[in-house]
UniProtKB/TrEMBL annotation:
Keywords assigned: Calcium, Glycosidase, Hydrolase, Signal
The protein's name: beta-galactosidase
An example Gene Ontology biological process: lactose catabolic process
Reactions this protein catalyses: Hydrolysis of terminal non-reducing beta-D-galactose residues in beta-D-galactosides
Gene giving rise to this polypeptide: bgaD
C-alpha cells in the first residue's frame, strides 16, 4: 500500500525504538535527546511515494512515482532476477529517486545524519545537488552520512539517490547477486534523518553479562563532556537503579566504562528479560549534553573448545532454522509485524535459534528476537568463491557489527556462507565487538566448530575427522517441496541430543521464497526448485513439517507410550529446556470420546485433570503419573497438553485407548434387515442387498461395480494385493442366513527365504461378506516374508475426479511419511479435496492426497455420487488417499515418492521421503526401505467394512 505523506507531517520520534540511541517519550523531544524523522515509510505496509525513474525493463524510461521502501520489481519496474541467473546482460539497470523534504529551523544547531537501512546495491546520495559522501556498496548494510552542512533549514531540501542494481565491485556482485536467492533492486529498507545535539554520543557498544557486570564503549568526540551517568530501568522506563562507574578510561573518540547491576534477571530465549540502559553525557557542571538509551539483556556467551556453546553457564542444543528476509508481494522489504509473525511461528515450533541467511536482517527482526527470545547467528553476505575483497569486506563487517552489537540474541558472527569467507576479515569482528563473540564459517571446520552442511545421517553420527570440534550444521535437512525438515528430523535429533559435542543445527529453511511476478500476471514464482524450501508457504501457510518439528523439538520429551488394558498411568519424561525447571510447566490430561462418521465431529470430554510434573532441572529425566478415572477405559483417546510459563502450548500428545474394532462396532450396523439375493451371469457374481447391487468378477472376485438407487458409486477393482502373483486355487459362494460369503483361496506357494529351514506356509485369502442390510465386509489374509521392501496391503480404484473430500478418525490432519510420523493428532478430521503440490502450487494445506496413519474409519465424499464409508477394523493401518502429483523439478527423484497402483489403499507400511540432497534411506533408520513383519507363518490381516 502506498501512502503520500508530506515531510511536514512526518512523525518525529525518539531514537530508542528497540536498540536505537534515544529515549522514547510521548512529550516533545528536548534539546539533549536524539530526534528521528522518517523520509520513507517504515516497511512493506507503510510506504511513502518518491519520484522514480527506472532505466530498463518494466515501466522504464520515464519519471513516475514509487513507494519507498520497496524492491522496484515488486512495484512493476525493471527485470526480475534469481541469483543464479546471468544478470550480467542487464548489469546496467539502475533507478533514480527524488524526494523533497522540509527541515525544521530548530535543527539548525543540530548534527544531522541521513540513515539508509538497506539499498540494493550501489547507492550514490546527493543532498541539494551535492554528494553526501562516497558511493555505498553492499545491499544489506546500514550506512549513514553527516549532512548538516548540505541542508537548508526552514525550507525545502532535495534528496536524490541513484541506485545501480549491479555493483561496480565484482566481489559484491558475486556475493549478493549470483547467490542462491532472489535478487532485487531499490531502496528496500527505511530512510530517516537523525538530529543529535552538537555535543553528542555517536554510538554505544555494551557487554552486559549474566552476573550483572557491564562494560560499555561510549563513542564521542565532544570536547565539553566531562563525565557520564548510567542507570538501569525497566521497559516501562521505571528507574531501577543507578549504576556507579567502577572504572573509566578515555582514548581518542571513545570512553570505556565498567559497572555492575544488582538483582537483575539474565536474558535467555526461555525468559528473555530486557532492560534499558540510560546513558547521560555530562559537562563539568553536571548538566546533560546528550542522553540516550539502549535496550539490553544480561547474558554470558562462551564457546568452550572440545566442549560446547554455553549461555549463562548452560550448554546449548540449537534448535534452529535459516530465515531470509522476504515476503512474496514485497521481496526483501518486510515489516516489524512480519518479524513478529515469523518469530512467533519459530517459537511455536519450539525452536530456540535462527540463522540470518545470508545477510544481516532488518533491525526490527533482531529487536523481536531479543524480546520474544531466539538465539541468533548474524551473517555477512558472501557466496562461494571468490570471496569479498578485503577493502569492501572490512567496511561491511564494521557496518554489521556496529549496527547489531548490542542485541543479546546474537551469539555468533558468521563470516559469510559456504566457502565465500575472506579469512583476512575473521579478526575484524573483534575490532568492533566489545563482547568478542566467536566467528564461524558456515559449511566448514574452522577454529572450534564444525558446521558442515547437509550431512547424511551416518556421516553426522560417526564422523571422526574433526571429532574434537563442536558439531552443528548451519544447514541440514534441506526442505525441498515436502521433503526434509520434519522428515528425518526425529532420527537426526536423537543423534544431536545424545552426542556430547553436537550443538544442534539449523534447518533449511523457514519459508518458500515464492515471489509475486508483476511481469507475469501476479503468479507466485519459486524459480523452479531453487526457492521451494520452506517449512511454511510463501504467506506463512503451515506445512506438515511445521507440526513434526513442534513435537520433535518440544522441550518436554515424553517417551513413546501405547495405552493398553494394563496401562498404569506412568509416563517417562525428560526436561529438555536449558533454563526452565519442569514444575514451571502446566500439563492437563483429557479423556475424550469421538463421534462416528454421521456425527458432527465434536469431541466429548469425559474427564479432565491437572497433571503434577516433577521438579526436574534442565536435561534431567524422570516420570509423571496421570490419574486414571474410573471410566478411563470407556474413553477413545487421552490427550496430554503441556503449556509453557508464558501461556503458549508446547504440544498436545494424543494416545488412542481402544483398538479400531472396538470403536467401530459402535457405528457398524450388523442388523439383518433387508432382503438379499445372489446369482452369477456373464462372468459376474451379483449380490443385491437392501437395494444395493454389488458385482464381483467370477474369475478374480475383485469388486467391479457398486450401484445404489440405480446410481453407480465408482469404487471398484479391488482388493488388489500388492506384489501378489499367486494363482487362485478356488472360489466359493456361501449363501447363509442374512448374508452371502464369497471366499477366494490362493494356491500355496513357497515364500520362504533362502535361509529358512522349513517351508510350511498356508495360502492367502480374500473373503467378501455381503449382509442383508447392505453392509459389505472384507477380510484379507496375506502371507509373506519377514522382510519386505515393497508395499504390504490392498488397493482399490476410485476416480480422483469424483472425490470432493474426506472425513476420518485417525491421525491428522496432515499426511505422513515413514520418516515423518510425528506432529499429528488422533481425532476426527475433515479435509476438502485439493491438488496442492507442496511448495510448488496450490499452497493449500493440509494436502489432501497421501498416506494417513492410524486409520479407524474414513468417509469418502463423492462429487457426483453419495460416496461411502470404510471402517478399518485392523490396527496399525495406513490410508492411502489418491496419488499426489510429483513436483515438476525433482531431477534426482529424492522428494518425489512413488505410490502403488490404485487410488484408495489400505497398507501396513509406507515409504520415506528424502531431501534436496539425500534420499530417505540416507537420513536415518526411519528412512530404511525395508519393513519387518514378524514370523513368516503369521498372516497380515486387513478387515474392512463398507457402507455405501
Amino acid at each position: 500500500m502506498k501512502m503520500n505523506i508530506s515531510s511536514s507531517v512526518l512523525l518525529f520520534t525518539l531514537l530508542c525504538m528497540f536498540g536505537a540511541n534515544a529515549m522514547q517519550s510521548n512529550t516533545e523531544p528536548n534539546e539533549v535527546e536524539t530526534e528521528k524523522m522518517y523520509l520513507s515509510g517504515t516497511g512493506k505496509d507503510d510506504m511513502v511515494d518518491w519520484e522514480f525513474f527506472c532505466s530498463d525493463g518494466m515501466n522504464s524510461g520515464k519519471w513516475t512515482t514509487i513507494g519507498v521502501p520497496s524492491c522496484w520489481e515488486l512495484q512493476g519496474f525493471g527485470y526480475y532476477n534469481y541469483g543464479k541467473d546471468d544478470f550480467k546482460v542487464r548489469k546496467n539497470e539502475y533507478g533514480r529517486y527524488k524526494y523533497q523534504f522540509d527541515l525544521p529551523k530548530k535543527w539548525r544547531n543540530k548534527e544531522i545524519k541521513i540513515v539508509f537501512e538497506g539499498v540494493m546495491t550501489d547507492a550514490e546520495v546527493k543532498i541539494n545537488g551535492k554528494l553526501a559522501g562516497e558511493v555505498h556498496q553492499g545491499a544489506f548494510y546500514e550506512f549513514k552520512y553527516s549532512i548538516s552542512h548540505l541542508l537548508k533549514y526552514g525550507e525545502k531540501n532535495m534528496l536524490e539517490v541513484k541506485v545501480n542494481k549491479a555493483s561496480s565491485n565484482s566481489s559484491i556482485n558475486h556475493a549478493e547477486r549470483e547467490a542462491d536467492f532472489w535478487i532485487f533492486g531499490g531502496i528496500f529498507r527505511p530512510v530517516y534523518l537523525q538530529a543529535f545535539p552538537k555535543e553528542n554520543i555517536e554510538r554505544v557498544a555494551i557487554n552486559a553479562k549474566a552476573d550483572g557486570s557491564l562494560e560499555a564503549d561510549i563513542f564521542t568526540t565532544s570536547k565539553k563532556a566531562q563525565s557520564l551517568r548510567l542507570s538501569l530501568s525497566d521497559l516501562d522506563h521505571n528507574k531501577l537503579q543507578e549504576l556507579p562507574l567502577t572504572d573509566i578510561s578515555k582514548e581518542q573518540g571513545k570512553w570505556h566504562v565498567s559497572t555492575k547491576a544488582h538483582d537483575i534477571k539474565s536474558w535467555n530465549p526461555e525468559s528473555p528479560q530486557l532492560y534499558f540502559l540510560n546513558i547521560e553525557l555530562l559537562n563539568k557542571k553536571g548538566e546533560i549534553l546528550h542522553k540516550t538509551l539502549e535496550r539490553i539483556g544480561f547474558r554470558t556467551v562462551e564457546v568452550l573448545e572440545g566442549d560446547g556453546i554455553y549461555v549463562n553457564g548452560q550448554r546449548i542444543k540449537f534448535k534452529g532454522v535459516n530465515r531470509h528476509s522476504f515476503y512474496p508481494s514485497s521481496g526483501r522489504t518486510t515489516s516489524k509485524e512480519l518479524s513478529i509473525e515469523h518469530v512467533k511461528m519459530m517459537k511455536d515450533m519450539n525452536m530456540n535459534a535462527v540463522r540470518m541467511s545470508h545477510y544481516p536482517p532488518d533491525t526490527h527482526f533482531l529487536d523481536v528476537a531479543d524480546s520474544l527470545g531466539l538465539f541468533v547467528i548474524d551473517e555477512v553476505c558472501t557466496w562461494h568463491s571468490p570471496h569479498l575483497d578485503t577493502k569492501v569486506g572490512r567496511k561491511i563487517v564494521k557496518e554489521t557489527v556496529v549496527r547489531d552489537v548490542n542485541h543479546p540474541s546474537i551469539l555468533l558472527w558468521a563470516n559469510g556462507n559456504e566457502t565465500g569467507w575472506n579469512t583476512a576479515l575473521d579478526d575484524d569482528y573483534a575490532k568492533w565487538d566489545i563482547q568478542q563473540r566467536e566467528v564461524i564459517h558456515p559449511w566448514n571446520i574452522f577454529r572450534k566448530t564444525n558446521t558442515m552442511h547437509y550431512p547424511s545421517y551416518h556421516v553426522f553420527a560417526y564422523d571422526t575427522y574433526a571429532k574434537d570440534k563442536i558439531y552443528f550444521p548451519t544447514e541440514f535437512l534441506h526442505g525441498l517441496y515436502d521433503g526434509g525438515h520434519g522428515a528425518g528430523l526425529d532420527d537426526y535429533w536423537k543423534q544431536m541430543w545424545n552426542m556430547p559435542l553436537a550443538a544442534g543445527g539449523f534447518l533449511w529453511d523457514f519459508a518458500d521464497e515464492a515471489v509475486v511476478r508483476t511481469d507475469k500476471k501476479g503468479i507466485l514464482d519459486t524459480d523452479g526448485n531453487h526457492a521451494a524450501d520452506g517449512i511454511v508457504g510463501p504467506y506463512g501457510e503451515k506445512e506438515a513439517s511445521y507440526f513434526s518439528i513442534k513435537e520433535i523439538w518440544s522441550p518436554i520429551y515424553i517417551e513413546d507410550r501405547y495405552i493398553k488394558p494394563d496401562f498404569n498411568g506412568v509416563f517417562r519424561i525428560e526436561n529438555r529446556y536449558h533454563f526452565t525447571h519442569l514444575n514451571e510447566i502446566k500439563m492437563a490430561a483429557k479423556w475424550v470420546r469421538f463421534d462416528g462418521p454421521k456425527g458432527t465431529g465434536k469431541i466429548k470430554t469425559i474427564s479432565e485433570t491437572t497433571v503434577a510434573l516433577p521438579n526436574l532441572a534442565p536435561v534431567i529425566k524422570g516420570e509423571f503419573k496421570v490419574d486414571l478415572p474410573n471410566n478411563w477405559q470407556t474413553a477413545d483417546a487421552l490427550y496430554l497438553t503441556a503449556t509453557a510459563p508464558n501461556g503458549s502450548e508446547i504440544f498436545t500428545w494424543s494416545y488412542p485407548i481402544k483398538i479400531p474394532k472396538k470403536i467401530n462396532e459402535t457405528y457398524i450396523d450388523l442388523s439383518e434387515e433387508g432382503e438379499i439375493s445372489t446369482h452369477t451371469e456373464a462372468g459376474r457374481i451379483k449380490v443385491v442387498a437392501n437395494g444395493i447391487q454389488y458385482s464381483f468378477s467370477e474369475k478374480t472376485t475383485l469388486l467391479e461395480e457398486v450401484k445404489k438407487a440405480g446410481k453407480i458409486i465408482p469404487f471398484n477393482n479391488g482388493p488388489i494385493i500388492f506384489d501378489h502373483k499367486d494363482k487362485i486355487e478356488s472360489v466359493k459362494i456361501n449363501k447363509l442366513k442374512g448374508k452371502v460369503e464369497i471366499l477366494t483361496v490362493f494356491e500355496a506357494s513357497d515364500k520362504s527365504p533362502s535361509w529358512a529351514s522349513h517351508k510350511e506356509y498356508s495360502s492367502d485369502v480374500i473373503k467378501w461378506t455381503v449382509h442383508s442390510n447392505g453392509l459389505l465386509d472384507l477380510h484379507v489374509e496375506i502371507k509373506g516374508k519377514k522382510i519386505v521392501k515393497g508395499f504390504k496391503g490392498i488397493t482399490f480404484s476410485f476416480p480422483e475426479s469424483e472425490v470432493s473430500g474426506m472425513k476420518w478418525l485417525g491421525d491428522g490432519p496432515y499426511r505422513v511419511w515413514r520418516n515423518r510420523m510425528k506432529g499429528t493428532k488422533f481425532q476426527v478430521w475433515e479435509n476438502d479435496y485439493n491438488n496442492t503440490v507442496t511448495g510448488e502450487s496450490g499452497f493449500v494445506y493440509p494436502e489432501f492426497k497421501g498416506f494417513f496413519s492410524s486409520l479407524y474409519w474414513v468417509k469418502v465424499k463423492g462429487k457426483n455420487n453419495n460416496g461411502f464409508t470404510v471402517y478399518c477394523n485392523s490396527e496399525n493401518t495406513f490410508l492411502r488417499m489418491l496419488t499426489p502429483q510429483h513436483p515438476k523439478e525433482d531431477p534426482n527423484h529424492r522428494v518425489s515418492v512413488d505410490f502403488p497402483e490404485g487410488d484408495i489403499s489400505f497398507v501396513k507400511n509406507i515409504p520415506a521421503i528424502g531431501t534436496k540432497f539425500q534420499t530417505g534411506d540416507k537420513m536415518g533408520p526411519q528412512g530404511n526401505s525395508e519393513n519387518y513383519f514378524g514370523n513368516d507363518d503369521e498372516p497380515i490381516t486387513i478387515h474392512l467394512s463398507f457402507e455405501f
